[in-house]
Amino acid sequence: MSEQDTHAFTKKYGPWAVIAGASHGVGAALADQVAAKGLNCVLVARREDALTDLKNQLVDRYGVEVLVVTLDLTLDDAADRLVAAVADREVGLLIYNAGGDPYITRFLDTPVEDWCKLLHLNTRTIMRCCHAFGGRMVARGAGGVLLVGSQAALGGVRKLAMYAATKSFAMTLGEGLWAEWKGQGVDVLNLLIGTVDTPTMRDAMVRQGIAGALTMQLAKAEDIAAIALRELPNGPTLIHPDDLAESPTGSHSGQARREHVQRISAESAFFIGD
What we know:
By secondary structure, the chain is an alpha/beta fold. The protein has a single domain, classed as 3-Layer(aba) Sandwich (Rossmann fold). The chain has helices at residues 3-13, 25-36, 48-62, 78-86, 112-140, 161-181, 199-207, 221-231, 242-246, 255-272, and strands at 16-20, 40-45, 66-70, 91-96, 143-150, 186-193, 196-197, 219-220, 237-239. It starts with a helix and ends with a helix. The mean pLDDT is 91.
């Protein structure tokens, strides 16, 4: 990215980015790449040690400001706590990368209380974060929301029923916000990914007894992060790697979902207005 492009990125999405789920994997890679573009970072996750290590790396490499917020995003008031911690910092980019399924079981094999935690994580907390930070972006006429989701959002999956359902909520929310905010200077992108080479994914594959769990070639977190930031202006939804296979240059990636949302929004406007 040229110096001019970096300046444009910072102007639209800076000066602060909130990265929820930043302790490792795709979230940490996204934090590194937005910091490299000059954005200050609010790092959010449960693991304070991992966030502190990442903070030190970002400060040393890029000289940005970093705020660590140690927070369990499954809590009922998680979004309120995050907003309070961010305070009056001007947030131009919200990245919500939290929301993995720690259970991977059949629906009845996990207590409903545990499913409620996943439900809060991928519905209430994400909605409240989008409302709080998205509202600030709309008011200033610039910003971006990146929702890192899963291909499970596209339909029901055995042993992932609740996970798929909550990810579908996030995807649909993101597409609706894209339709509402695209004319107000705020970009919204759902990035639906499959298996990515992260410690969490490798551990899950080992627990499930998948052959070659530790040696199988998987997409790299840093590559996913680069694609996400490149495609952020091209919402509402990018399915990785399917859309990129159809359009290697990325110039028309996500076209099918984009046209679908545009068509449905136009049709519904006849009944509910703009």
